[in-house]
Design goal:
By secondary structure, the protein is α+β, with helices and mostly antiparallel strands. The chain is built from 14 helices and 8 strands. Strands 1, 2, 3, 4, 5, 6, 7 and 8 form an 8-stranded mixed β-sheet that branches. It is globular. InterPro entries: PDDEXK_12.
């Protein structure tokens, strides 16, 4: 019998290479999924395990808590599945419509149509730049951001000193956008929010000469949650949140402030005016904003915003049950058969602007409660933060939207809360 030759331990055969796992040669930590046995990976928690995996606020913790980054990207949170679930929901079913169809709704006020028209006009960049700073703009001109005389306004009601301060702020926002948008050094969404999105919102809302700066506030609501009564029953749609909310914050002694004070004092069990859990409970939501990085997660924003609008409408139907026909666009309570012809509602439709931010680009669409449907319009560009002229477009668009909210949203909530007091 032939003797087997002793294998040289220093010789690596082809079979040895194929049989050796990759991480044996170069050990690397797996940050997404630590090593586990097959039985652990295939294990499905039972109902008896829920008690041992609950956390303080009553939510169920993922058994594999350190794989949360993977579970967030699983099929359960697929935007396609969420969209399909909202389109087939039993209540507040989602229906997407065009801006022309939105304008044709009987209950959409002329002020809202004017808002859409103005936002479209601002995009043309006619008269959006302060003429007082024309020399400064020309000295800072870039090949990717051309200028022409039509872009400059003839005059402004703002002092040149304030215009120069605003210009420096916008230059900083543009520079931060370039830094955050560098594909070689990508940053997290939180840095976009901190350096870019919060800065432009602050400049548009808090540092404006308009009355809206006194009656609107924006808040980062990333860590907030939808209150339990207004969550969807489907686990797929239960906890969709957004990044920012712009809320009505009426000044003291205003009509809306008086109505809010009366509502809270007269209510024995329910004292909140937005759908969030224990967050700015005395301030109605006016605008919702969802932000995403340029690369990754883009498809999630439309479904998140549409579903968040559904939670907002649950709150409003709860607050105004006796006049539900006054907050929908078609009239009627939604349980009675509608007539064949169009019905003029007794009140204006409840409109919620939804803003999608993808890296530097901002777009807006509008959600409308139509009896028991969540109608969401196609979107419209608002501007961006990667070029100076586009940054001025965005600034003007946000201020025009704030002016609309200060007028139309305040009037809507004042009328409805006054109706509760009279009821």
């Amino acid at each position: 019998m032939a003797r087997k030759m002793a294998r040289d331990p220093m010789v690596v055969t082809k079979e040895a290479v194929l049989d050796t796992p990759d991480n044996a040669a170069t050990p690397r930590p797996n940050r997404l999924l630590p090593e586990r046995t097959r039985s652990e990976l295939l294990y499905t928690p039972t109902s008896s395990d829920k008690a041992s995996t609950s956390i303080g606020d009553g939510r169920d913790r993922d058994v594999f808590s350190d794989t949360s980054s993977m579970s967030k990207r699983s099929g359960r949170s697929s935007p396609t599945k969420r969209e399909a679930a909202m389109r087939s929901a039993n209540e507040l079913r989602l229906q997407r419509i065009s801006l022309d169809e939105l304008a044709a709704l009987l209950s959409v006020e002329r002020a809202t149509i004017s808002l859409v028209e103005d936002l479209s006009a601002i995009r043309q960049k006619i008269g959006i730049l302060p003429g007082e700073l024309k020399t400064l703009f020309e000295s800072q001109k870039k090949i990717a951001d051309p200028l022409n005389d039509a872009m400059f306004a003839s005059s402004s009601n703002t002092s040149e000193k304030d215009l120069e301060y605003q210009h420096r702020r916008l230059l900083r926002i543009c520079k931060s956008t370039v830094d955050c948008n560098n594909p070689a050094r990508p940053v997290h969404e939180a840095e976009w929010n901190d350096k870019v999105h919060s800065s432009i919102l602050e400049l548009a809302l808090n540092e404006s000469d308009s009355d809206a700066s006194e009656s609107l506030v924006f808040r980062n609501v990333t860590d907030a949650r939808i209150a339990i009564p207004f969550r969807d029953r489907s686990a797929l749609l239960r906890d969709n949140m957004v990044d920012y909310g712009i809320f009505l914050a009426p000044p003291a002694a205003s009509s809306l402030e008086d109505q809010i004070f009366s509502f809270i004092n007269s209510s024995r069990s329910f004292t909140q005016l937005n759908a969030l859990e224990s967050f700015e409970v005395d301030r109605p939501l006016a605008i919702a904003i969802e932000t995403k990085r340029s690369r990754g997660g883009d498809a999630n924003a439309p479904s998140q915003l549409a579903n968040f609008a559904r939670a907002h409408y649950r709150l409003c139907r709860y607050l105004f049950p006796a006049s539900k026909q006054n907050i929908g666009s078609s009239g009627g309570s939604g349980t009675e058969p509608q007539s064949s012809g169009p019905v003029k509602p007794t009140g204006s439709a409840l409109m919620l602007p939804l803003i999608e931010v993808h890296g530097p680009s901002w777009r807006i669409n509008f959600a409308v409660l139509d009896v028991d449907r969540d109608l969401v319009s196609s979107d419209l560009a608002m501007g961006s933060t990667d070029q100076m002229s586009d940054c001025y477009v965005l600034l003007q668009s946000l201020r025009r939207l704030a002016k609309w909210a200060d007028s139309e949203c305040v009037a809507w909530w004042t009328g409805r809360l006054q109706g509760i007091g009279q009821g």
